[in-house]
UniProtKB/TrEMBL annotation:
Family to which this protein belongs: Belongs to the dus family.
Gene3D superfamilies hit by this protein: 1.20.120.1460, Aldolase class I
Keywords per UniProt: Flavoprotein, FMN, NADP, Nucleotide-binding, Oxidoreductase, RNA-binding, tRNA processing, tRNA-binding
Function: Catalyzes the synthesis of 5,6-dihydrouridine (D), a modified base found in the D-loop of most tRNAs, via the reduction of the C5-C6 double bond in target uridines. Specifically modifies U20 and U20a in tRNAs.
EC id: 1.3.1.91
Keyword NADP: yes
Gene Ontology MF term list: flavin adenine dinucleotide binding; FMN binding; tRNA binding; tRNA-dihydrouridine20 synthase activity
Annotated catalytic residues: 95 (proton donor)
Reaction(s) catalysed (UniProt annotation): 5,6-dihydrouridine(20a) in tRNA + NADP(+) = uridine(20a) in tRNA + NADPH + H(+); 5,6-dihydrouridine(20a) in tRNA + NAD(+) = uridine(20a) in tRNA + NADH + H(+); 5,6-dihydrouridine(20) in tRNA + NAD(+) = uridine(20) in tRNA + NADH + H(+); 5,6-dihydrouridine(20) in tRNA + NADP(+) = uridine(20) in tRNA + NADPH + H(+)
Domain DUS-like FMN-binding: 10-306
Name the record gives this protein: tRNA-dihydrouridine(20/20a) synthase
Native source species: Aquamicrobium lusatiense
């Protein structure tokens, strides 16, 4: 039976799940597995590692997602990630962007399952932490029944610790990355069938999951659930994750303490010559649907972006939100 136990995770998302986003999300859930944006193996090896790979200790458990298709380079990048203290290394086999395709990695690796397995084997040999994959059910004209089974069999034989499956095909030509998140139809049943055929192996599901109620239904069929855009655009969802995993009713969440923690974090970031908007842009979706949420968004989208903006702007924005509406509900 798989020892991988991460039942809930937040998807790696380019330009979104940076270190500031992850710190924010960790304040909302102590148990969700967090992922970095995809980092190309060459960048991890030759780039500014502190900038690309640095993270706050409070982010644990946190995984580094790598992009690449060269087993030797991925093994080296995985070693670097492990030395930085990441809990997991994940290989991207799902991104359909032209930039990723030009580097012969991401979703196009669905066409080369043995190469993916070779990459997994090299990374497993290089590190002691867990190695996982995030993939699609297939690409282009592939038959998902054949393609997903072929990939999963090879990577599990190579020692992969978990397989996270985005339950859509990716079209490498003709659709943009954004369209690839919406247009190809979701096929959750295909992922369920994969799990039934791999009873002792960890299979997680991703794609179009918008609520914790939906997440709970998926967890009756597979081992883990990964939320992407819903977790980012409506981050309050994450305040119920720990209770979902523990099978308890969610307690009232202390939003005042959250804002104070984020203000302290932002002040430290500013002291290091950062900008307030780099932190607050990830918080704009908080308080969705509450009175004052529009004003919260306005302040964080405008005032927080101005040169010289200080952390006190978070308190100004929070003062506009009427939390009593939630309590009344």
């Amino acid at each position: 039976m798989s020892e991988y136990k991460e039942k809930f995770s937040i998807a790696p998302m380019l330009d979104w799940t940076d270190r500031h986003c992850r710190f924010f999300h960790r304040q909302l859930s102590g148990k969700a597995l967090l992922y970095t944006e995809m980092v190309v193996a060459d960048a991890a090896i030759f780039g500014n590692r502190a900038r690309l790979l640095g993270f706050d200790d409070t982010e644990h458990p946190v995984a580094l997602q790598l992009g690449g298709s060269d087993p030797v380079k991925l093994a080296e990048a995985a070693r670097i990630g492990a030395d930085f203290g990441y809990d997991e290394i994940n290989l991207n086999v799902g991104c359909p962007s032209d930039r990723v395709q030009s580097g012969t990695f991401g979703a196009c690796l669905m066409l080369s399952p043995q190469l993916v397995a070779d990459c997994v084997a090299a990374m497993k040999k290089a590190v002691r932490i867990r190695v996982t994959i995030k993939c699609r059910i297939g690409v282009d004209e592939q038959d998902p029944e054949i393609a997903l089974d072929d990939l999963s069999e090879k990577v599990f034989d190579a020692g992969v610790d978990a397989l996270w499956v985005h339950a859509r095909k990716a079209w490498l030509k003709g659709l943009s990355p954004k369209e690839n998140r919406d247009i190809p139809p979701l096929d959750y049943d295909r992922v369920y069938r994969l799990k039934r055929a791999n009873g002792e192996r960890f299979i997680g599901i991703n794609g179009g999951i918008a609520t914790l109620e939906e997440a709970a239904r998926h967890l009756r069929e597979v081992d883990g659930v990964m939320l992407g855009r819903a977790a980012y655009h409506t981050p309050e969802i994450l305040t119920g994750v720990d209770s979902l995993l523990e099978g308890k009713e969610a307690p009232d969440f202390d939003y005042a303490a959250l804002v104070e923690t984020m203000a302290d974090y932002a002040a430290r970031h500013l002291a290091g010559c950062g900008r307030l908007g780099q932190v607050t842009r990830h918080m704009v979706g908080l308080f969705h649907g509450l009175p004052g949420a529009r004003r919260w968004r306005q302040i964080l989208s405008t005032d927080a972006m101005k040169p010289g903006a200080g952390a006190e702007i978070l308190f100004e924005a929070f003062a506009a939100v009427d939390l009593s509406a939630r309590q009344a509900a």
